[in-house]
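[job 0412] stage=complex_fold ligand=2-acetamido-2-deoxy-beta-D-glucopyranose status=START
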Amino acid sequence: MIITVLLGILFQEAQSIRYQIQRHQTIMDPIHDIHQVEYRVQMQFGSQKQPMELIIDTGSSDLWIPSIDAKGFLNNVNRYDCKGSSTCINTHSSYSVFYDDGPISGTLVWDQVWMHNIKFNQSFLLIERASGNMASSGGILGLGFNSNAANPNPSILESLYQQKLISKKYFSLYLKDEGEFGSYILFGGIDMEFIQKDQKISYVPLISDTSYLMGIEGMSIDDELFSITTALVDSGTSCLTVPAVAMDDMLQVFAAKGVECSYRVENYAPSYCTVHCFVNATNEQGIIDSFPIIKIRVNSSFELLLNPQDYLYSCTILDGSQSKCNTKLERSQSDDILLLGDAFLHSYYTVFDQTDKQMGFAHSINNKGLKLHVKTRHLVNFAQMLILYIALLLVI
Ligand SMILES: *[C@@H]1O[C@H](CO)[C@@H](O)[C@H](O)[C@H]1NC(C)=O
Ligand SMILES: *[C@@H]1O[C@H](CO)[C@@H](O)[C@H](O)[C@H]1NC(C)=O
Ligand SMILES: *[C@@H]1O[C@H](CO)[C@@H](O)[C@H](O)[C@H]1NC(C)=O
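[job 0412] stage=complex_fold status=DONE, emitting structure tokens
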């Protein structure tokens, strides 16, 4: 109790910057209920305070913003004009970074950057060429380690620290899974108001000096373990992306519990989660009771729990006996890395600590409050069509 109070006072006195995150949702396919969701912050660049929207990405380390000189793409996003800022210094040196969604390249500039009313001198990269899905994204705020960046100059987090705007190199994330507003990033602090009252933050050491990579034992259902050796906390990934072998084994356990899942092979959208499931239940409680609790096992004494409400995205009641649920799970072909994307960050308030090389986790206030979205598919049958048609004729 005394320790909690003391910590509370310490955190209040330490400098921190709280920043609002906007949840941006694009509907890719209304029939299959597929959305692309991104979490963005807005910052201002240059003497004219040009507003830019940046995707927050803990999986990369560079700050990119679209350049006014980018030809033939990035037409629907704000683009920064170095010549329009009296404080901009263009170094004319080129950099490129390969992301999972495609490459980006462009030049390095220095200018002043505004976060609310806080101004600091920052170097960043201008997007001049991009391909693949990167060609349609706006800016990117890489929150990873400086040592992993293409740009050799201080990252935003490093700049905030060096310019004494925060007293330790860390930040924490609270992401909501619905609504446009209400998500926050706090640089240099921890926001206890987003953590469940009975919870404390548990820390897991990083096994890398350059990324938010943790050593884990795997995922488990009941007492069955599906081995995975590492997990990366990545806000730039939407889903909980599970290595193929572990995912396949896990879905067999689902099947044994009466939940039949499969994954889409077609690529609807890069960030959509591909696993969907059929279950013999037709109401919210029935569905929740059918799905198992999934655990991410860090070690034998520490596990991160995901309830069905945490990893189910939405369910549709198909007929009198069955429902189809879209999950926030995705099967990955690559590596032995579990990607803890936004789907995970919805349930856990997460601390990214570069100074002490550790990740902190606590159940966020969402974890109890997530509501399962259940809807009924309405089929318009022939009789209803006929009545509609006659009604229309009568009106005319
Ligand atoms: C920002 O930093 C760069 C590199 O140190 C320097 O050349 C430039 O003058 C600085 N700009 C401002 C406005 O302080
Ligand atoms: C398990 O992980 C937790 C969280 O990082 C740590 O506090 C604990 O010491 C670890 N226990 C073992 C047995 O390694
Ligand atoms: C679910 O319902 C289908 C169709 O009625 C049936 O074939 C299947 O065995 C049921 N599954 C379970 C686990 O009850």
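The domain at 199-376 is CATH 2.40.70.10 (Cathepsin D, subunit A; domain 1).
[job 0412] exit 0
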